[in-house]
Design brief:
The chain has about 100 residues and is mainly beta. It is about 0% helix and about 45% strand. Strand 3 and strand 4 form a beta hairpin.
Length: about 100
């Protein structure tokens, strides 16, 4: 559904960790098209400290740092960053282009 409707970014939370995928189409990474999935649940209460499954589409996982997501967008792309707190260190980033 996301691919057919040209959704290029899916943001979610709740799971108390951070994970980001590549651009995914039907379970496979594709450069420049597809949906990037980002889970940011690292803002407070507690973190879920456990190993992640080793999937090819999972490009960044962090379960030991609190932090937040910073998004900067314009008409050509979005820059997505995971920023740890309290020190403000960017530990993951990706540029998501708009689909033509």
């Amino acid at each position: 559904m996301f691919y057919s409707n040209r959704v290029n970014l899916h943001l979610s939370g709740h799971y108390h960790s951070y994970e980001r995928t590549c651009c995914v189409v039907e379970g496979d990474c594709r450069e420049g098209e597809g949906t990037v999935y980002v889970v940011v649940g690292t803002g407070g209460h507690s973190l879920v400290i456990e190993d992640y499954a080793n999937y090819a589409w999972s490009k960044s996982q962090q379960c030991d740092k609190f932090g937040y997501q910073r998004v900067t967008a314009n008409h050509t792309h979005m820059d997505i960053e995971f920023v740890t707190s309290p020190h403000g260190v960017v530990t993951d980033s990706i540029t998501v282009p708009v689909w033509n």
